[in-house]
Design brief:
Distance between the termini: 102 Å
CATH architecture of the largest domain: Sandwich
Helix content: 25-40%
Strand content: 25-35%
Number of domains: 4
Number of strands: 13
Strand order of the largest sheet: 8-9-13-12
CATH topology of the largest domain: HSP40/DNAj peptide-binding domain
Radius of gyration: 39 Å
Shape: flat
Number of helices: 8
Length: 375
């Protein structure tokens, strides 16, 4: 038993879809299943179904009959659902995105082989020290990139050559191939196999660059790393990528900066974090200590009664802000209260005295509470 096709389901639209919605859905489906793009075994059949569904639903008379009676209604009305045409839809416009333009019934391919083309961008990864990321530095780097060929003035053609145009594509850089499909004759455009898209006669290629118009060279550059730069930041160096073709401008060089981790400091944004071990006596009594910051030595006041994991702040002792000469982040110190595992006899005696004093104070508090409760 033959399965009845749902034209709306094939196009992926609902039954109230407008003509614009039908056309948009057809474009998307046609791109997906055209046999010249989709090499699946069933692509041609699905493409035919898509065309049949669109041809029917885009015609008001046929759509009305289909909505009421289905495919049988089309047959009874004298329409053959197994044959179809695309009406006034511009297939050249629909498929140009993956054929590169150019169909047997359209204007054809406009040559772009000799048009200026921008050069490729390049990437270089470098590594710098933690302190260099905080305060900036200059780095000398080496890159290998394509530079314009001086022998041919970057044209790729020997200045003394006579027949400079490719005899196969006649300077177009591409050749056309006609294919018969269910929609008629389509012309696909591919790169010329003789000149590989350059449009130039390979026999006339420049001997220095072999027709490329550029040559690879090593170059040294000095780049300035700004203060405050973060790990993974990307810097753009204009016009230091590969040279362009046919007079097109050069691409850019992107330098990706990797910052080595510090053994002493942890950075979060423009703030610096360190940990400081203190004794329980320093935590109880407070203290003033000297600590190291990225800017040098600084005095840190530890308040009396400090607790483990308390965070103390040294303002403006962090990383300088990008683009600022005065603004800096802060330096945060996380306190780590250390309890000694071994103590001297004298220390043990003092601790015992403190313990007895603490117990006496607690006993006194308990006695006062009891006396209040007994009144």
């Amino acid at each position: 038993m033959t399965k009845t096709m749902d034209y709306y389901e094939i196009l992926g639209v609902d039954k109230n879809a407008t003509k614009d919605e039908l056309k948009k859905a057809f474009r998307q489906k046609a791109r997906q299943y055209h046999p010249d793009v989709n090499k699946a075994p069933d692509a041609a059949d699905k493409f035919k179904e898509i065309g049949k569904a669109y041809e029917t639903l885009s015609d008001d008379n046929k759509r009305q009959i289909y909505d009421r009676y289905g495919e049988d209604g089309l047959t009874n009305a004298g329409f053959n659902p197994n044959t179809f045409n695309m009406g006034d839809i511009d297939l050249s416009d629909i498929f140009s995105s993956f054929f590169g333009g150019g169909f047997g019934f359209s204007r054809g391919y406009e040559a772009q082989a000799n048009a200026p083309q921008r050069g490729d961008d390049l990437r270089l990864d470098i590594q710098i020290e933690f302190e260099e990321s905080c305060f900036g530095c200059e780095k000398e780097i080496k890159i290998r990139h394509l530079e314009p060929c001086e022998s041919c003035n970057s044209t790729g053609v020997d200045p003394n050559a006579k027949d400079t145009v490719c005899p196969v594509c006649h300077g177009q850089g591409r050749v056309q191939k006609s294919t018969q499909t269910i929609l008629g004759s389509f012309t696909s455009v591919t790169t010329c196999p003789n000149c590989h898209g350059s449009g130039k006669n390979p026999k006339s290629f420049c001997k220095t660059c072999r027709g490329a118009g550029s040559v690879e060279r090593e170059k040294k550059l000095t780049i300035k790393i700004p203060h405050g730069i973060e790990h993974g930041s990307k810097m753009r160096v204009a016009n230091e990528g590969n040279s362009g073709l046919n007079g097109g401008r050069s691409g850019d060089l992107y330098v990706v900066v990797h910052v080595k981790p510090s053994k002493e400091f942890t950075r979060e944004g423009f703030d610096i974090y360190t940990e400081l071990e203190i004794s329980n006596l320093q935590a109880v009594l407070g203290d003033t200590v000297t600590i190291k910051t990225i800017h040098g030595q600084a005095q840190l006041n530890i308040p009396r009664g400090s607790q483990n994991e308390d965070k103390l702040t040294l303002k403006n002792e962090g990383v300088p802000y990008l683009g600022s000469t005065s603004q800096k982040g802060n330096h945060y110190v996380i306190l780590k209260v250390v309890i000694p595992q071994k103590i001297s006899a004298q220390e043990e005696k003092l601790y015992k005295e403190l313990l007895e004093l603490s117990r006496a104070q607690q006993d006194g508090i308990i006695d006062r509470v009891k006396s209040v409760l007994n009144k």
